[in-house]
Design brief:
This protein is α+β, with helices and mostly antiparallel strands. The protein contains seven helices and eleven strands. It has one domain. The protein is 34% helix and 37% strand. The strands form two sheets. Strands 3-4-2-1-7-10-9 form a seven-stranded mixed sheet. Strands 5-6-11-8 form a four-stranded antiparallel sheet, covered by helices on one side. α1 packs antiparallel against α3 and α1 packs across α7. The protein is globular, with a radius of gyration of 17 Å. 34% of the residues are buried. The N terminus is likely disordered.
């Protein structure tokens, strides 16, 4: 995943500031390609504050390959299609972000487990040691993560809800949380691994977005 995704997306969320509802959906197809989207709804006050930045952010998003649907001053839909190379090739190591991927193979299938221990504050202090962790700001964001896989053979998981291959989590950004799931797929597929890699986007999004927001304020 390119760092530009993280930088731009969290710039949008935290520059808007105030209370916000964010739904981040990652839809993976059978080819291992994915569509990542964000539905962002913010408070009216935050919308007024953000109006001065919206044109600049929209231009940067489009430059990075996103489509932006500005439904109103307080509602946005942002989307990008990622090809297989973008989803499987990353300079980010999952273990550095608390994500563990295990693969148990049998003759016909493989069981893949993705376990993510998300500690944004810990990563923040490591990456941005000179800036205090903005816990109060993050606590105002209701973040929902949806992973939509092209298979329905979902095993053990801690998602809030499961509908076929679609798993939904409520992710608190201001404190530790865990996300995990198991899925059984044919040996020739790597779709669940792609999903696991994209889970890292949640963590990277927060780090890069806040850094950009803090620099803008200086």
């Amino acid at each position: 995943m390119k760092k530009i995704i993280f930088t731009i997306m969290l710039s949008l969320i935290l520059v808007l500031a105030g209370c916000a509802d964010v739904t981040n959906t990652v839809k993976v197809d059978k080819k291992g390609e994915a569509t990542i989207s964000f539905d962002v709804d913010i408070s009216t006050v935050a919308g007024i504050f953000a109006s001065g930045y919206s044109n600049e952010l929209e231009a940067k998003l489009k430059e990075a390959g996103f489509t932006v649907d500005k439904k109103s001053n307080t509602s946005y839909h942002i989307e990008k299609r990622l090809d297989k190379n973008e989803t499987t090739k990353s300079n980010m190591k999952p273990e550095d972000y608390g994500v563990k991927i295990t693969n148990t193979k049998s003759f016909f299938t493989q069981k893949i487990k993705v376990d993510a221990d998300i500690d944004i504050e810990k990563i923040w202090k490591k990456e941005v040691a000179d800036v205090a962790f903005p816990k109060e700001v993050l606590s105002q964001i209701d973040y929902t993560f949806i992973l939509d896989l092209p298979v329905s053979t979902i095993g053990d998981n801690n998602a809030k809800s499961v509908d076929g291959g679609k798993l939904t989590w409520d992710v608190p950004l201001d404190k530790k949380s865990e996300m995990y799931f198991e899925v059984t797929v044919p040996n020739v597929k790597n779709i669940a691994i792609v999903g696991g890699i994209l889970v890292i986007a949640i963590i990277g999004l927060v780090i890069y977005l806040i850094r950009k927001h803090r620099k803008k304020k200086k």
